[in-house]
Each structure stands twice: as C-alpha cells, then as structure tokens.
Amino acid sequence: MTPHPGEDVAVVAIGRNEGERLKxxxxxxxxxxxxxxxxxxxxxxxxxxYATAAGCRVVELDPSRPFxxxxxxxxxxxxxxxxxxxxxxxxxxxxxxxLVEGWLEQGVGALIEREDVGVVCGHVRELYxxxxxxxxxxxxxxxxSPGEIRSxxxxxLIRTEVFQAVGGFRPDVIAAEDDELxxxxxxxxxxxxxxxxxxxxxDMAMTRFSEWWRRSKRTGHAFAQVxxxxxxxxxxxxxxxxRRILLWALxxxxxxxxxAPFTHGLSLxxxxxxxxxxxxxxxxxxxxxxxxxxxxxxxxxxxxxxxFPALLGLLEYHLRQRRGDAFRxxxxxxxx
Length: 336
Fold this sequence. Notes:
By secondary structure, this protein is of the alpha/beta class. The protein has helices at 5-8, 20-27, 47-53, 69-83, 103-113, 133-142, 160-166, 177-187, 209-230, 239-263, 266-288, 293-323; strands at 9-15, 35-40, 57-60, 89-94, 97-99, 117-126, 147-148, 156-159, 191-202.
C-alpha cells in the first residue's frame, strides 16, 4: 500500500496566542493534508481569524470550561471525524511547531509497515537552539533514540481507530497528557514507535529563568497527576520520578538541615557533595551521548535544579486535589 498523506491524514494543530509561530505552523501543513483543524484556547492575538483565512477549520474552545491541551486535541479530533469520518490517520501538532516536509509519508509508511504500531513520532528539534540556554536545553531534551518507546510526546501520528478505542485524551490532565494517553494505548496492546526521521521543528522562544521554573513546576504537577492515575499499574508510571524529586529536593535537604547543629555543618557539606556527584554523573552521561561540554554542563545543571520547582508542582497538585479545585493549565511562557 502506497502512502497518500494528503488523503489519508488529517492534521489537528492547537494553540494559544502563538502569533507568528502559528502562521508558520499552519503554512507547513495546509498544502499537505485535505483536512486541517486548528483549535484555539482563548487567544487574543487574532489566531482564529488567521487560521480561518488560511483555509483551516477552526474550533474555538468554550472558555466556561478549563482549557487544556488534552481538551483541545479531543475537540480537534471530533471536528476531523465530523468532516472526514473515514480518515485513517491523524497527526497532532502544537502551534509552536512546523511539520517537516516528508514526515507524513514516513510516518504513514511506518504505520502501514507495522500493523502492531498504533502511534508513531519522529525527532523534534529546536528552530533556534543557540538563541538561549533554555532553547538549547529543550533541544537536548527532545533527543530520543529510535525504536519502541513508552510515550510519544504531544506531537504524533496516530491511527484513528486507536484514538477512538482509548476514548482520546483525558481533558482534566493539564500536562503530560500524552504520557497518560500512551499508557492506555499500550494497555490495549498497541506499540508506540519513534522513527529515525525528523518530524517537527519547535520554537520554544524561552528567554527567562522564571519561564523555565514555571515549566518545571508544571512537569512536577504532571508527574503527580498521571501517577495518581497510573502509578499503581504494573509499570508504576512516574513513581520513580516522583521518588527522586522527593529524595533530592525534600528528604535529603531536610535531613541535612536537621543534622547541621549536631554535625557542626558537616551534613550540609555531605549534601553538597552528593549534589556534585549527581551533577557529574549526568554530565558524563551526556558526554557519552556525544554532547559538547557546554551542552552537557547546561543539561546537568538544570537537571539537578529541576527537582526543586518540580517539588512545588507535586505539592500544588496534592493541594488542589485536597481542596477539590479544578485543574487549570499552568502557563509558563509569555505570549509573543
């Protein structure tokens, strides 16, 4: 079977105040698929109007319900099925990403070749990795070896039947919704495949430490929420991640502080040495992957620091859960 992406694939792009990034995103897909749906989460920059003018079907989310990427993708998928009910594959894309030319052919080809695969994704690279250390950090984070994987990330190509079988995303999961979806996809026996091909170019456009901090805090919240849903499954999803955060950002610092008066501060020195060892371990692991020294240093530093804002995210999730608050998105980046 020869892939015909224009006929076989619909594209769902989601966004909120993405500005020029959205225009670039839609230009990268509008000629490559017959059905392109843009889902907007309360933008004030004219994004829905631009998408309409570009020829997309546009869904504007009702603001009376909490926004989330999961909800946006679900409503985009529903729009696809309404207008193109027999399309076999759907490509999900974020409004700050450009789809790489040739990816749809490779992605569809991989799904046709592997009947046991329900989801495929390719490499995502930063458009401007040298612009800021945060862009560089994300470019390093995106790097993943090809083969079968646990989770695809939020940009992926999926069989329509698989998305329908799992009931789509859980709209109340405000981050790591892709991990949560993939747990259920794999539970039905489907594989998730990382293809050794470039899929998308991402524009993080992150310039401030405060933005990185909020993003990391959101990740901690996501770990807690998804672990609450799937942490008791056989694979104990995100449980080990949470344990590491608690150990390095809470238990060890608290223990060192409590022992400091009795050890004349030696416990604090031991804690610092432990952090240095963790930093070194991550650094040399990055060097083995072929990263430059500066790249390994950046990644190691922020990996060590990440656990502290992530701890705040964990605590925020449990506080929200205890209060019965609705889970609302944690925005970390300024609108352009």
